[in-house]
Amino acid sequence: MSYKITSISSSSLPIGEGRGGAPKVTLVGAGPGDPDLLTIKGVKALAEANVVLYDALANEELMEFAPKSSIKIFVGKRKGSHAYSQEQINQLIVDNALTYGHVVRLKGGDPFIFGRGSEEIEHAESFGIPTFVVPGISSSIAVPAYQGISLTKRGVSESFWVITGTTSARKLSDDVQLAAKSTATVVILMGMSKLAQIVALFQEESKGETPIAIIQNGTTPEERIGVGTIDTIEAVVATHNLSNPAIIVIGEVVKESNKLKGFYEEFISKEIR
């Protein structure tokens, strides 16, 4: 699906002269992939959009909630393939708000969870454009939940970490090493390219038998999952050819899932033999 991209330089229009009414920007969290997980408030925001700028992780079915007359602009990023740089996206938000009025920036998951939403808000507000935020259901919670994985469970896990696997410097976050020392559930987003490093850190903490699940394209019809332990997960990934976009969930709660419990019971019985 492709859409015509239309914008003009923000320097050529004074504030308030957008052709679609007064300029404003609404950041909307699109949720983890299942279009039914968009909030009602998100639907209402899309229904009032003159322009929609949407990410690769935002389900295109959500465009049905926007007016047919609205301009839809794909600004998604994938590893090694960016439709626009972040600076260009920031400028598109401003240009189109000043030109057309209400811009909805539709972002996968929640716009403030590794989504650079705060940067986009700050840029729009620097031009005097009013901004609003509609929170979304974060994939860090929803994707494990679809597999019956409760990130906290009484007597098993008292807390959880949500960590980016790849920082802006393209390195593994130092927080992963700290998380590996804890008893908390660890959820890592954007970490597949660093899986070997993640495994090594947990092995250094003598956690080779800790359960782990990798869920690709979570909450969508293309969802795929690989489960095992820290010691076995790289082989599982290779066997099932798992890749991004995927979420890594590490901790004892993984084997507590009713959907996955049978695998771990069978796995343990084989180990005993």
From TrEMBL:
The keyword Cell wall biogenesis/degradation appears for this protein: no
Pfam families: TP_methylase
InterPro entries given in the database record: 4pyrrol_Mease, 4pyrrol_Methylase_sf, 4pyrrole_Mease_sub1, 4pyrrole_Mease_sub2, CobA/CysG_C, Siro_Cobalamin_biosynth, Uropor_MeTrfase_CS
Presence of the UniProt keyword Amino-acid biosynthesis in the record: no
Enzyme superclass (EC): transferase
Pathway it works in: Porphyrin-containing compound metabolism; siroheme biosynthesis; precorrin-2 from uroporphyrinogen III: step 1/1
CDD domains (alphabetical): SUMT (cd11642)
Domain Tetrapyrrole methylase, first and last residues per copy: 24-233
Enzyme Commission number: 2.1.1.107
Source superkingdom: Bacteria
MF-aspect GO terms: uroporphyrin-III C-methyltransferase activity
UniProtKB keywords: Methyltransferase, Porphyrin biosynthesis, S-adenosyl-L-methionine, Transferase
GO terms (BP aspect): methylation
NCBIfam families membership: cobA_cysG_Cterm, PRK06136.1
Similarity annotation: Belongs to the precorrin methyltransferase family.
Protein name according to UniProt: uroporphyrinogen-III C-methyltransferase
Natural source organism: Flavobacterium polysaccharolyticum
Gene: cobA
